[in-house]
Design goal:
Rossmann fold; 8-stranded mixed β-sheet; 8 helices
């Protein structure tokens, strides 16, 4: 079995990374976004140039990782649009920093609510890939408000979705599927899979599962009673199951 952890164990890992190892959230966010953009490139057949990608961004650090990915995707030649589920003034400090950077480099950014269904559909348009960076492992209860509305709209549009850490609406520990929940083609989880991602009934929402390295030292896993070897000896992003080579065809 692939090693996994609970949301509380991941919170403790994050705390130890910052407080004892001096590895800040900004560093981890950069790794997360870079890994996400790399899996996007793999899904798109190894070529980002000319691809149309939409990034869905929530208010927390998961959204910040999505915006880091947006920057790397733009640098790779993709046409990227960012969909915010809230006013930029509500973003936390680090996501707000990423938002400011995207604004400076001219990335198209829009804020949407339930009164703008047609406009959101137009933004999604003929996109090659949608990235879900709405909610992370701290989800409590079902998505609500604009987050729930965006999830329903995006699932209904039917474009391929790549989720960051876990599909928005999926419980990180139990794998319980909320109403609504992103139905992803693939998911890039960070450090280790959250246990809910490995529950068989979650598979239709998780899709193909990848794990991205955010620089957690193996000694920290021992602090939460986990034994983890050198998972990333072959690279910073690995599939949970070997031998998978599926890519997304152009629409």
């Amino acid at each position: 079995m692939f090693p996994s952890l609970t949301a509380n164990e991941m919170r403790e890992i994050d705390r130890l990374m910052v407080e004892e190892m001096g590895i800040g959230l900004r560093q981890m966010m950069e790794h997360a976004g870079r890994n996400l953009s790399e899996v996007a490139r793999i899904l798109l057949g190894g070529e980002l140039k000319g691809r149309k990608i939409v990034v869905l961004v929530g208010p927390g650090n998961n959204g910040g990782g999505g915006m880091v990915a947006a920057r790397h995707l733009v640098n790779g030649g993709s046409s990227v649009a960012v969909v915010l589920a809230q006013d930029p003034a509500r973003l936390k400090e680090l996501p707000a920093h990423q938002h400011a950077t995207l604004s400076l480099i001219g990335v198209r950014i829009g804020v949407f609510d339930s009164a703008e269904a047609e406009e959101l559909a137009a933004w999604m348009g003929p996109s090659d890939l949608v990235i879900d960076a709405l909610l992370g492992y701290s989800l409590s209860g079902a998505p609500r408000g604009s987050l729930a509305w965006i999830i329903r709209q995006v699932n209904g549009i039917g474009r391929p979705i790549l989720a960051l850490d876990l599909p928005s609406g999926l419980h990180p520990d139990t794998g319980q599927v909320a109403d609504p929940c992103i139905r992803a083609h693939a998911t890039v989880t960070l450090a280790l899979p959250k246990r809910g991602l490995l529950v068989p009934t979650a598979k239709p929402y998780v899709g193909r599962l990848w794990v991205g390295d955010i620089g957690v030292p193996s000694s920290l896993y021992r602090r939460v009673s986990l034994t983890v070897g050198p998972l990333f000896s072959r690279g910073p992003v690995i599939p949970v199951e070997d031998g998978w080579s599926e890519t997304l065809s152009r629409p």
